[in-house]
Amino acid sequence: MKRTVRFISALLTVLMLMSSVVIVGAAEPAEGVEDYLTYVFSSEQAKLSSMKLEREQNGYRIYCDEYTGEIAFQKVATGQTLFSNPYDVGSLPIADATKEQLLSQIIIYYQTAEGEEKDPMTSYHDAVVQGGGTQVQVEPIRNGIRVEYTIGRQETRRLIPRMIEKNRFETLILENITNDFERDKAKNMYVYMDPFDETLPEKTVAEMKAKYPITNTMAVYICSTDISFAEEDRLESIIKKYCPEYTYETLDEDHQITEYQGSADVAPPLFRLALEYTIDASGLNVRLPANGIRFDDTAYTLTNVDILPFMGAVSSEYDGYSFIPDGSGAIVEAKKLAGESWGRECDLYGYDYAYHQLMEAVTNPQEETRFPVWGAVVDRGTTTVKKVITPATTETDPETGEEKLIPAETEDVEVEDRKGYVAIITEGESLATIRHVNGGAAHKYSYTYARVQPRPFDTYNLSESIDAASNSEWTVVSPRKYVDSYRIKFILLDGDDQAELAGLTDYYETSYFGMAEAYRDYLEETGILTRLGKEDVKDKIPLYIELLGTLKTTEKIFSMPVTVDTPLTTFENIKTMYDELAEKGVDNVNFKLMGFANGGLSNAGVPYNLKWEKAVGGNSGFRDLMEYAKEKGFEVFPDFDFVYAPNDKAFDGFSYRKHAVKTINDQYTSKRYYDATTQSFTRNFEIAISASTFDYFYTHFAKEYEKYEPTGISLSTLGMDLNSDFDEDEPYNREDVKQFTTDLLEKIASSYDVMVDEGNAYTYKFVDHIVNMKFESSHFFNASYSVPFNGIVLHGFVNTASTPLNEEGDIESALLRAIESGSYLNFVFAYDNVEKLKQDDDLSKYYSVRYDIWFDDVIKYYNQINDAIGDLQTALITGHEFVTGQRVPDADELEADKKAQEEYKAALEAAKKEEEEREFHKLELEKNRAERDTSAMIDEITAILESMTASRDAFNEAVAALAALKDSIAAEKNARDTAKAAADAAQKALDDAQAALDASEAEDKTELEADVAAKKEALTAAQNALTEAQTALDAKAGEVEYEKSYKAAENAAKKVISAAEGVETIVENAQHKVEITKEHKSAAAVAANAAKVESVADEIETLKTAVENGMKTVEDLYSIEDKKEEAPAPDEPEADEPTTDEPTTDEPATDEPTTDEPATDEPTTDEPTTDEPTTDEPTTDEPTTDEPTEEEPDELDTTSKYIVDDGSIVLVTYETGKAFILNYNEFTVSVTVDGQTYTVDAYSFVTLNR
Amino acid sequence: MKRKGFISIGFSVLVLVMTAMMLMTSVSAAAYTTYTYSYDGYPLQSPDAYVPSRVVDMETIGLTNDAYDLRDLEVDKEGNVYLVDGRNNQVIVADRYYRLKFTISSFINEYGVPDSLAAPSGVCIANGYIYVCDTDNNRIVMFDTDGNYFKIIPKPESNYFAEGSLYRPVAVAVDKYNRLFVVSSTTYQGIIVMDDKANFSGFIGAQKVSLNLWQIIWRSIQTEQQRNQSEEYISSEFNNIAIDDEGFIYVTTSSIDEEKQQSVINNRDKAGDYAPVKKLNSSGTDVMNRNGFWPPSGEVMVANMSLSGTPTGASKIIDVAVGPEGTWSIIDEKRSKVYTYDKNGNMLFIFGDFGQKLGNIPANGIEAITYSGDQMMLLDKLNSSFVVYRRTEYGNILVKALENQNKRQFDAAVVDWTQILQRNSNFDAAYIGIGDALSRSADYEEAMDYYKSAYNVANYSSAFREVRKEWVSKWIWTIPLVVIVVCVLLSKFFKYANRVNKETQLKVGKKSFKEELLYGFHLIFHPFDGFWDLKHEQRGSVRAGIVYVIITIVAFFYQSVGTGYIFNPNGTYMSIFGQIISVVVPLILWVVANWCLTTLFDGEGSFKDIFIATTYSLLPVPMLVIPSVIFSNILAQNEGQLISLLVGIAFVWAGMLIFFGMMVTHDYSLGKNFITTLGTIVAMAFIIFVAVLFSSLVSQMVSFVSSIIVELSYRA
Questions:
Q1: How many folded domains does chain B comprise?
Q2: What pLDDT digit, counting tens, does each position of B651-675 carry?
Q3: Which of A1076, B562, B571, B653 is most exposed, with minimal Cβ within 10 Å?
Q4: Residue from the list A561, A809, A838 with its beta carbon closest to the beta carbon of B571
Q5: Is the Cβ pair B357, A364 closer than 8 Å?
Q6: A959, exposed or middle or buried, with CB in 10 Å at 0-12, 13-18, 19+?
């Protein structure tokens, strides 16, 4: 036996080894190809072991499948692995084309030169399969590997005869194709031209001959001219498969015969590019050198490249989510969207107004993306891992001197299986789009990745510029392509358990918060962010106030309309405002001045010259203000727009031709706004200025500006917009523009404090204040949560403020959001003349800007936020999570709950009743059955009667015993032990008797006779037992101590009671059966029997009463009133004296081992007597047995419906341990954090220390 | 983009002034922007009155996320939500926290037969019952509020129903007397009214059939059959209904011709014809107040041409809901927007947009609206969910102000309106509200300022009249004084002019410039004699004519800028350049055309004569227009006829003068002059036609050449 097992196991091992060889062998071409689409890897580990370890460095490993180009990136310490493609593609029940996509690392989108959109090419289908392993090359480079892809078809010539003589085609090709279907397929791609066909009309033949002169001499097959690439592929593969004899030589021969002069085949699309994976201290860097993308750009237009689309894809079968940079950041849960096709595109850094077509021009725009980060987290429940207790060591055998390996001692531990990653585009991000796609119907994966556009291009409609043109689209590629690299950094997040196991203390947790931390650390390490120190902040939080300067209005003077400058806020007003605020303790104020210079709000010019408006105080007014500000210690940020020119005024240094951005068709372009009324984008004629000329304007402007010795400057649009330039002579892509912008920002930041709006990620390095920042996502239906990712990253580094509070619809939430994101308050005000704003359609958006009205609220809100986070200005945010709370129910709801509770109980009651009724029905049915065989019944009844008599006898005996007991008790009132023993025995006997009776009575008619006999025996046995017990007791009476005997007597009494009840049921049943027979059998014999039964029943009744009386007497005698209640369940309180119990229960068993049935024997050990009635008579006992089971659902669960877990309660923790629970609900909630329960009012927060 | 007024084009035909009417834009990228419309049709941003608080889908309610076809949404007084699901033939009832209470789908009817709903479309909760429009079963079924079957209300028996017509109830409203108002999608006679016993009691609210003259003539010559076929005159059917606390019924329709619906808005037509929403009393009369700037019909400024798929044309109104304090809201299926008005028809706010964000409803997804306390809910049929919107602080103030106004607690209302202005300085209704209050406390001058801010001319005018009354009573003695002074001055002037003219008559040789000018005052009163002398005795001159033209231009310009606020509330005016064109171009045209024509018809007047005669004839225009402009500053709105009268007289007078001037100048008979005058007008038209033709040809050529250049530059 054992040998066989060993042999089999050896065989299996060999097989297993062989199969693994096959996996490795799959790296060989040919048979491997199909495998990847069908081969099932059992786990990620299996996939990983099929890959080759390419590099190990800094605690990370890169694995690569050199055949498919798939890579895996592993953190050695925790074993966490990030795969470029899902490992289980082979097992998915999806289309092959989808699988090929899932197995790709690069997807290329392109057009033909004519602008026809082609199907995208995937690295798996068009490099791996196409090249049979030759088109993907893996090479080691410094710190990592380089995977080179040749995507597309390398051969330029196709083995397809374009024109072939009829017979040759049939013999050389068609006849060789054995598969009918494929033969037809191939044939259908050809047009047969036979001039000798008599059936053809003459005209056709003439046309044919004119078109193809060769048909004058022979019949030919001509390959159809509109054949597509895919069809060519198919045809060629058919020819190659079935006609190995057919070569390029034969093809040339054929073309010679038919005098085919056709042009050379159009070169099929072919793209060469490489991905470089390198390891650094923090993780994996992926680089796509844009310059290295090579293709025939005369024949094709490259539109987009998807880089590692499935890297770290989240399967919808697990809990887990993707983080996308929509606005402040949004969480999309894969499981929630399983099966739903949904996706979002996050174009980085907002719109590029140099393009004709803005993204999503039709529908309501989404929040813009200001930082190039995304990530994903998967929670796969728990997994078992081996925890090392003692590491592996080697020991030298002292005797032999041999080194012996002592294996590591491990133990299996259950840990949470969580993993995740965060990706940051570190280079080329302004030409990228971060896309999130949910596989939906196609597959189960939800994935986020970067799509890049290395060759910027735009499409415009010809009819817009040429009257005569049709409605045709025209695509033009910018002559300025992107030549640097795209770099993406992947950082792994670790589950707490895994990290603990690996002994890691410095790791990023698997959550969006971990991602934010990783990004924050990246920004700090690269010097982009510098931590604010104590000296950088004031005591109180900054307050931002945007001020409106002056505008032109039309006033009627002597009924003549005159245009005048109306000041909304003057420099003097600003001083007053500051004084008023400072008086109330708000002294850290930053004023942003909008429309104070160069034409004011309604007639603004380009900042080239600088002229402060007379109406607000003029040049001297500003100088005064600056002095005042320095003296008082507040800051002033005059706002200048270097990105757009709203007006072209004379001598303002601006010329459209020289400085404006041009579109692809050489037009000027302007900023576009989404208009709520028409639900479309409209222009405002703010002409975009080319970034290359920013410096020209600023250099001139700065000379004038510095005269006033200002401390700060606001560059609102410079912080948020990037417009490329398609100018033919001087084109710039967005990366160039980003460079120009950062250069300018750097220059300005060296002299002034800089404030910008919204703040793209590249501005972080230079700015001190970001206002109008969005701390919310777009709140898409399909996104689960909105997270203040940017707030978490920036708090403690850059001062941020949200959009003006006074124009906010929902102020309460906005205040909470400030605490959540660590941002400060911002207001937009005008001091005077606000009603004039209504006259200007542009400025009517400032509908609630009266400073005097808002003053009290400013103080109130400011203090509220300052009290909360005033002491946390330099503290980082160290935790952010959504917590679950409970809504505090309304009074009427509690009422309703109470009612529901009662109703529920009533319902239970009703159900119980129903159950009883059901049981009753069952009985009824049984009764009916009993009716059907009445004849048998009679016999049975007789038998029962007999047994009844027997039981009566038993009862008599019992009663006698009881009487004896009573007597003895009465006699030995002082010596209770004897009496108790007697009673015990008597009761025991009674029990047995009753059990027998029970059994007999409940049995089905067929078994009745046998049972009755058995029961008779049982009864006699019981009798014997009774007497014996009595005698034994009598004998023992003197011996047992008083206390013990008292207990025994007590037990006995209880047992007597239950026995009595058993008897009662027997009686009832007997009566019941009598009833049945009485009702349904009118025959005399039955009647006689019935009478007999009745009499027996009566007798039993009397017996019962006798027993009961006896019992009562016993009870009276021992006055055990307090134990009465426990009588129905007499066994439970037995624990006190088991020793005394045993002798009494043992006695019948030992005395009557042969006569007693084993069934009765068994229960005697623990549940001697009461067991029987409950098991035998379930119907009658129900009320008592039901109770304990019903106790559990007796209370209706009314609390679960008050649970709030929709992300509306947030717990945010700061570095100092100060934390806030924020309640975004319009009701009060109670939340438990760290074991403490807090009640948080609607739109309010509580502070706690952790 | 500055506000550019509408420039009235006047007579200028050759110069086509293209007014770039720019659209107001919003910066916010939030789910939607709330806005209202100004008096002159510009959208003005407003604080959000409602903000989205959550989306409730079927899963939230406690049902599976299967397929649903939600058609109606109602909320009862306890806040229970009723959703009608036409696909699964059920009514879903949830409590105020959106947890499922029960569903109604099948029931045992009074005959003890199991019965069920078939494609229900509407629900109404009233007087303790749920009324369900069981559309495919052609009946209404009543349930009690626990969902127990109560009774069936079958199709009402009446011979008013067209033969074989279908009864498909889609919406129902019930008043407190248990009268039923049923909208049946295939019944176009109006709303079916049933009494509390469910007996048919009539149709109400049938759309008025308004035919224009041409249609009436056309129909009179049609045969009976043709008339029956011309369905476009048949009244339109309603699509939804709501009832307010006072028993007024709001009904909506989307079957009105879009262009007509929009033209009603553009013309600020207060009549209810072509209104997509009406407020009917129980006898079916439209009692809606349309006192806002624009009649309540949804969107005011609509695009006529679609840019990349944006909605065009008039709103498609598909449901109405009655909110607090007499406010009511309608929804526009085309734009996924909600328009809310007060009971006077003032627009309060508009919000909503397409999209996938919280608070958005996808295009064509909006299906029903309802109010629940301080919440509003919109049904999104495409996502099988509804969005709950919460009223903001601003919304609360608004409601409070309306409440005080409705309760006629005007002092309290003023406080609220002031608060609203603090939150939204763009809100015109608040200015009016304060103005009204000030008027009531007889503070008319300040009221005028507020009315002026809101462009409310009617109220401004009445306040102005009060101010004027006060002024008059104070300065009553000055009026006769001024009249006397003016009369004396005028008579002195005319006497002087008369004397000069008489003296000049005798003077031989060249007349002085003063004499030439003053001759006009003789001419306009004695045209036949005057024109004869004008021509034959050289009493006038070209230079004086030019002065008259300049005076006319100045008069028109003064009219344009100096007209009182009441008669030109928008302050629109034409520039001096425009005025010159509008006077000089027709004048030159007339002179040229007349000269061309009369030389052919042996007219005796030379070009110069014609010019002088025509320009002298213009004198009555400035003479009367200037006083009319002065009057416009002291007249109230309903006294405006005086101004029209003056201006009318001026034009008729000038016209007559030109006519007789030509007659005398050319020495024509009356009949001949009449013919040449007509001919001149035709000739003017012809010249214009040729000029337009020429200019369009030139512009075509220019654009053709530029296209070629552009195309060459692209293709190169």
A1: 3
A2: 999 999 999 999 999 989 999 999 9
A3: B571
A4: A561
A5: yes
A6: buried
Q: Which of A466, A780, A853 sits opposite B710 (nearest CB)?
A: A466
Q: Number of helices (H) and strands (E), helices first, in chain B?
A: 18, 27
**Contact status, residue A648 vs residue A656, Cβ threshold 8 Å:** yes
- Residues of A (344-373) whose Cβ lies below 8 Å from B: 361-368
Closest CA to A572 of A526, A624, A649: A624
Let me know if residue A406 belongs to a domain.
no
Q: Choose one of A257, A286, A301: the last residue of a domain.
A: A257
| Cβ atoms of residues B117 and B132 within 8 Å | yes
Q: Is residue A841 less than 8 Å (CB to CB) from chain B?
A: yes
Residue A795 inside a domain? The answer is yes
For residue A12, with 0-12 CB atoms within 10 Å meaning exposed, 13-18 middle and 19 or more buried, which class applies? exposed
Distance set, CA A309 to CA A101, A312, A333 (Å):
9, 9, 18
Looking at the complex, does the CB of residue A1206 fall below 8 Å from at least one CB of chain B?
Answer: yes
Look up the domain containing A170 and give its range. 163-257
Cα–Cα separations (whole angstroms), residue A1048 to A97, A1033, A1037: 84, 10, 11
Using an 8 Å Cβ cutoff, are A451 and A306 in contact?
yes
Cα–Cα distance, B557 to B563 (Å, whole number): 10
Q: Does residue B541 sit at the A interface (CB-CB below 8 Å)?
A: no
Domain identity same for A145 and A180? no
- The answer to whether the CB atoms of A845 and B27 lie below 8 A apart is yes
Distance CA A478, CA A737 (A): 14
Query: Residue B354: which CATH number?
Result: 2.120.10.30
pLDDT in tens, A145-174: 999 999 988 776 778 888 888 888 888 888
* φ and ψ at residue B23, rounded to 5 degrees: -95, 145
Structure tokens at A895: 């009422």
Type of residue found at A715: L
Residues B559 and B630 reside in one and the same domain: yes
Average pLDDT value over all residues in chain A: 79
Q: Which residues contact A947 (CB under 8 A, 6 or more apart)?
A: A996, A997, A1000, A1001, A1012, A1015, A1016, A1019
Q: For residues A1089 and A945, give the distance between their C-alpha atoms in angstroms, rounded to a whole number.
A: 9
In a domain, A803, yes or no: yes
Characterize the bridge pairing of strands A680-688 and A670-675: antiparallel
pLDDT in tens, B182-235: 998 877 788 899 988 888 888 888 766 666 677 777 777 777 777 666 554 455
Question: Among A682, A597, A604, which residue's Cα sits nearest to residue A643?
Answer: A604
Tell whether A9 lies on the interface with B, counting CB pairs under 8 A.
no
Provide ipTM, 2 decimals: 0.78
Mutate to test the interface with B, among A560, A729, A757, A781 (most CBs of B within 10 A): A781
Do the Cβ atoms of B422 and A853 come within 8 Å? yes
pLDDT single digits (tens) A812-836: 889 999 999 999 999 999 998 888 8
In this structure, of A22-31, A777-786, B59-68, B344-353, the range with the lowest mean pLDDT score is: A22-31
Report CA dihedral (A202, A205, A206, A211) to the nearest 10 degrees.
160
Q: Check which CATH number belongs to the domain holding A1238 and give it.
A: 2.60.40
* Phi, psi at A226, each rounded to 5°: -95, 30
Please answer whether residues B370 and B364 qualify as being in contact, where contact means their C-beta atoms are separated by less than 8 angstroms. no
Quick check: A845 and B26 CB within 8 A? Answer: yes
Residues 334-363 of B with CB under 8 A from A: 335, 353-360, 363
Distance between CA atoms of A277 and A311, rounded to whole angstroms?
13
Question: Which residue, A1176, A1210, A1234, sits at the end of a domain?
Answer: A1176
The residue range of the domain holding B586 is: 541-697
Reply yes or no on whether the pLDDT at A953 is more than 50: yes
Q: Which residues contact A1165 (CB under 8 A, 6 or more apart)?
A: A1145
